[in-house]
Amino acid sequence: MLRGNSSNLPFAVVALILCLGFIAVSQAQAQRTPAYPQRAVDAEAVARGKDLYEGYACAFCHGADTRGGNGGPSLLRSQLVQRDQKGELIGPVIREGRPNTTMLGFSLSDAQIADIAEFLHSFELESRDPSRLVPESIVVGNAEAGRAYFNQVCAQCHSLRDDLQGLTARFPDPLDLQTHWIMPGSPSPTMATVRLRDGSVFVGELDAVDEFRVSINKADGSRQTFNRRTQVAQVEITDPLQPHVDLLEVYSDADIHNVTAYLVNLEE
Amino acid sequence: MTNPNLRIFSLVILLSAVTLNLQAQTGLDPSSILNPSPDSWPTYSGDYSGQRYSGLDQINQSNVRNLTLAWVTPLVSGPQGRPAFTGGYGDGVAFAGPGTNVKGSILMVDGVLYVSAPDNAWAVDARDGTVLWQYFWKSIGGTHIGNRGMGMWHDTLYLETPDNYLIALNAKTGEELWHTEIASFDEKYFSTTAPVVVGDHVIVGTGNDFDAPGFLQSFDPVTGELQWRFYTVPMNEGDPGLETWGSLDAARHGGGNPWVPGSYDPETNLYIFGTGEPKPAYVAGPRGDMDALFTCSLIAIDVDTGEMAWYYQTSPNDTHDWDSAQTPVLADIEFNGEMRKVAMTAARNGYFFVVDRVRGEHLLTSKFSDTANWAEEELNAMGQPVRIPDKDNHVGGALVSNANQGAANWMPPSYNPETGLFYTPVNETWAMYYLTELDPRGPMGLGGKREVRTGGASFLKAIDPATGATAWEVEFPASGGGLASGVLNTAGNLLFSGDRGGNIVARDPATGEPLWHARLGNVSNAPQTYMLDDQQYLLVAAGDRLYAFTLYR
User: What angle is formed at CA B127 by the lines to CA B123 and CA B131, rounded to 5 degrees?
Assistant: First the structure.
């Protein structure tokens, strides 16, 4: 059984298609409006609004970045703020406050409220909210425990002096390193051996397989598809990454974190 | 009035008025959906049960190998399709491309197919595939991820748009009758669901990937006026479920969007539907470590009042964006020796649930995605899986099954009353989930995590709802995971669904054995069937193309 990995040819083809698709999408999007266009704002009004927002202590409760702070809710995700255009919805709340809360009323002019609204509308909103306080490192494991795990499990197939020589240097970002060792790119592709009912055997890189057909890329560069219902007696698929696939159900997260800590700290 | 010509003229006028009056009562009588002819497909699931089981048996196990292509029709979205009618507030260019992908249900009423994709609707002759009309909505934006189909009331069709309008179309011409705003574009909703017509209610859901509350609404089929709105999360002090949120503000921004059509039980007048994940989707922190009701839940509401009769939560406080919005399947099954009226769902979290559909009483939970590892081995007393906090998103990465698409998703499952089995495409996939936001105020929407997929597998599974056990499964080889299409069962003792190799496949529903297939490319919706002129058709979409198969006679 072959499961998805980063080495076999179908994956490479899929990845290529995805890349091409991504380029196509990117180019298309470059010419297209985003699904939810950001507001066009007047920079001077935003600057005035920011001064007011800070000067009237809005920032104390709602946060300098409008995402909430000491007791005040986030204004960035407030539906009232999102619906507001030029202060017409925000204004009454600023002036009258919210009864039974710490939100008091503030006596501000229409122009001041419009400026505060402009400031609030200057923040970009994305459904995949960009992270702000990003962890400095994903390395959280114990290197010594990772060494023991590596020697017990990984060393059955791999050697740091041989096939993994220079591994850490190749992946300076620990997240990339962790991704790679969990499901690496492999130098050898997934192979398929196709035995036909007439006894002939074809071997090649697996290109596609379902219940009805199997397609291989042969050594001479040609692709050949066989009918599994009428023609093929047996298909054997050899995924060089099968041990990695099998380990997905075995690792604990601590094992993963420890091995990464060990690999990151290797003296190369 | 003695002039005979005038008399005849008056008679014509009178007859025209009568005809017009009759026309208002033609088309699809909503009461007929309660017991629809198997020849037709008048609502999202073919009927209200969500079973996607057709009573047609002309195509059956003895002759399915003789299926032949009747017609194939490409559907061209946007202005290039030369729409008969257009509407909308956009420029008609920004969101018009690049292509059509039919992911929804196709209605079949009186020999005409009604098909939709984001911003687009078509009528197609069900006999030969000819496009009769196209309607194009020039949207101002919104997430164009898919459209699940249309609803129909007499001669009116209902389409939701990515920028949150409900559009009523004249089914005969494609002309717009009216449109009404159903959710705020400024609040970044988007609307993909197939409206479900029940009596004189057009039931409408929406989606949102920011921190906005989910709600289900009912509109008047003639005027488009709002009849009721049901919020899926607490919106005010005193609302039920508020005690399961850290604050009212968290609840009001808590998601739970109903973005897939539900089912309807005429006996109880309950519309039963699923809700989406709580927001923010990947970090529970700011909302507290409680259940976050009524996200990731089955909910039953009275169709006339919009009031909740019962709920059952399938994922308390989900942290992986695993909706429970899937269409529930209603059936009468034998359970522990007695017949029970049940609702079933295979949730995105990897667990299969059976509840009593009258009272919401929990009957059964089983794990149908074997690799799912985010919950404790033991269910809680309510039969709910218990989340393992260490399998939330983690700074160092948590290896979690399933990857974001989930164990199941919107792809419609099917129930076959002859085999007594529930069928669904299934993922068993893995991903490393990294927490990327340490701000205690948390991220918004779908932020705060990075996910790296590490592989997996894809299946079609048959689940016995009486035991929760998998009766059989077909693994799609070398797929790397990813869900296959939704499923259709028929009285011809056949199951139809797409695989991961681009085939539409007919199988024996008792064993999964393939009996016929055709490679179309990616099957993009759940197959359907209808009957015309004593000829049964299998209808399936693959991207921008509709394929109709039939027996050669």
Answer: 30
Q: Does an H or E element contain A257, and which? A: helix A253-264
| pLDDT band of A32, cuts 50, 70, 90 | low
pLDDT tens, residue by residue, B14-50: 444 444 444 456 899 999 999 999 999 999 999 999 9
Phi then psi for residue A166, to 5 deg, are: 75, 10
* Measured distance CA(A62)–CA(B197) in Å, rounded: 43
> Would the pLDDT of A7 be above 50?
no
Are B208 and B192 spatial neighbours (Cβ–Cβ below 8 Å)? no
pLDDT > 50? residue B274:
yes
Q: List the structure tokens of B402.
A: 């399933």
Those of residues 156-195 in A touching chain B at CB distance below 8 A are 175, 178-179, 182-183, 190
Q: Specify whether B534 is catalytic.
A: no
- The structure tokens listed for B297 are 């839940």
By C-alpha distance, the chain B residue nearest A129 is: B447
- Whether the Cβ atoms of residue B376 and residue B385 lie closer than 8 Å to each other: yes
Distance, CA of A71 to CA of A45 (rounded, Å): 27
Residue B120 sits at the vertex; the CA angle it makes with B114 and B122, to the nearest 5 degrees, is: 30
Question: What token pair was written down for B269?
Answer: 């007048």
Residue B514 in contact with partner chain A when CB distance is under 8 A: yes
Q: Is the dihedral of CA B244, B246, B247, B248 positive or negative?
A: negative
- CB contacts under 8 A, A 105-144 vs B, are 125-135, 138-141
Structure tokens at B228: 């009721």
Q: Please indicate if any CB of chain A lies within 8 Å of the CB of B501.
A: yes
Query: How wide is the angle at C-alpha B419 spanned by C-alphas B417 and B420, nearest 5°?
Result: 55
Give the 3-state secondary structure of B327-369.
CCEEEEEEECCEEEEEEEEECCCCEEEEEECCCCCEEEEEECC
Q: What angle do CA B293, B294, B300 make, to 5 degrees?
A: 145
**What is the spatial distance between Cα B19 and Cα A264, in angstroms, rounded to a whole number?**
80
Backbone angles phi, psi at B34, to 5 degrees: -65, -30
Whole-complex ipTM: 0.91
Q: Name the DSSP letter for residue B445.
A: B
Q: Minimal CA–CA distance to B145: which of B104, B113, B182, B175?
A: B104
Phi/psi zone of residue B512: left (φ > 0), alpha (ψ -120 to 50 degrees), beta? left
Share of chain B above pLDDT 90, in %: 93
pLDDT at res. A6: 35
Is A257 part of the contact surface with chain B (CB cutoff 8 Å)? yes
The answer to pTM > 0.90 is: yes
